[in-house]
From TrEMBL:
It comes from Ferruginibacter yonginensis. This is 1,2-phenylacetyl-CoA epoxidase subunit PaaA. Pfam families: PaaA_PaaC. InterPro entries: Aromatic_CoA_ox/epox, Ferritin-like, Ferritin-like_SF, PaaA, PaaA_PaaC.
């Protein structure tokens, strides 16, 4: 029988050779645990992430915009489902994940605890929030756990459409009336810093990065991805004819990157700990939807049981 230390060595060798880890493969408990943690947080983010945009479906400025927004919000629900399924392959039940979310035990992305005050926020979320999410998820298409990597491939295909629709929404506003231009700039101002926080704490404060990089769950650090995002956004905002709300943004010839200002980490941790502007509202909405959806889950189970019983009868 193989010793634990040999199993661990064989596991790391597989990771080093870029062989995906699949559900039935041996894996260290900590690898299983941290994947469950990250994948379930990611799933919760997609699902809670529907709420700020869902807020604008009934107020979209045209039928076309409404149809696009509905499709986008539905996509986010789908992403949540792919991810919950990926986490289930590691032995975590969907019920447990939901319970952990509703009790406040499980985290979801800080970004979804900010309010959506104007229609321009739909553009800013698409451009900045989906934009930040894509950078992260493109990296996660190559994550070492097979089901999570494959879920991210599907997610990224849809997410790139989300980013473009957001940018296009802002593009229209940025070429509109003075009020529309001001609304566009205001949304960028409010979403910029929270979008930078999405990448997580700075590398020196990131508790999970070292092991996640060793196991190729993450391929880039939080600060590397954040820098990539800043460099990209600085160019894109010029196309909009708008500005980013950071007086310290400046090209650094030596680093070949843009320097940027200090992130308000006190605000970040405050939001992560549940004290952001909309944390309570988001969880209350999710709890209400869960309670009101109980009959749908019961009906789905009853239908599945009936179908299974019929199949068994036919076989007999
Ligand atoms: N918010 O040690 P690290 C989307 C926590 S999807 C809240 O660096 P890690 C789609 C972290 O969990 C957006 N908590 O952690 C969409 C950890 O606590 P723990 C979500 C955060 O895991 C668009 C602690 O801080 N994407 O937007 C945050 O190595 C539009 C220490 O941090 C994903 O979830 C945060 N921002 O790196 C939907 C992608 N950052 O768990 C609708 C997958 C960190 O030890 C509309 N996740 N924390 O108690 C990841 O890539 C990673 O988990 C990171 C964090 C990069 C988010």
């Amino acid at each position: 029988m193989m010793q634990l230390v040999d199993l661990e060595k064989a596991f790391q060798a597989k990771i080093d050779q870029e062989i995906k880890i699949e559900p039935k493969d041996w894996m260290p408990d900590a690898y299983r645990k941290t994947n469950i943690r990250q994948i379930s947080q990611h799933a919760h983010s997609e699902v809670i992430g529907m709420l700020p945009e869902g807020n604008w479906i009934s107020r979209a400025p045209s039928l076309k915009r409404k149809a696009i927004l509905i499709a986008k919000v539905q996509d986010e629900a789908g992403h949540g489902l792919y991810l919950y399924s990926a986490a289930e392959t590691l032995g975590m039940s969907r019920e447990q994940m939901t319970e952990d979310l509703l009790s406040g035990k499980a985290k979801y992305s800080s970004i979804f605890n900010y309010p959506t005050l104007t229609w321009a926020d739909m553009g800013a979320i698409g451009w900045l929030v989906d934009g930040a999410a894509i950078l992260n998820q493109v990296m996660l298409c190559r994550t070492s756990y097979g089901p999570y990597a494959r879920a991210n491939v599907r997610i990224c295909k849809e997410e790139s459409f989300h980013q473009r629709q957001g940018f296009e929404t802002l593009m229209v506003l940025s070429q509109g009336t003075p009020e529309q231009k001001a609304m566009c700039q205001d949304a960028i101002n409010r979403w910029w810093w929270p979008a930078l926080m999405m990448f997580g704490p700075t590398d020196s404060e990131s508790t999970n990065s070292d092991t996640s990089i060793k196991w190729k769950i993450k391929r880039k650090t939080n600060d590397e991805l954040r820098q990539q995002f800043v460099d990209m956004a600085v160019q894109q905002v010029k196309v909009l004819g708008m500005t980013l709300p950071d007086p310290d943004l400046k090209w650094n010839e030596e680093r070949q990157h843009y320097d940027f200002g200090e992130i308000n980490w006190t605000e970040f941790w405050n939001v992560v700990k549940g004290n952001g502007p909309c944390n309570k509202q988001r969880l209350d909405a999710k709890k209400k939807a869960h309670e009101e959806g109980a009959w749908v889950r019961a009906a789905a189970v009853a239908h599945a049981q009936k179908k299974a019983a019929r199949t068994t009868q036919k076989v007999a």
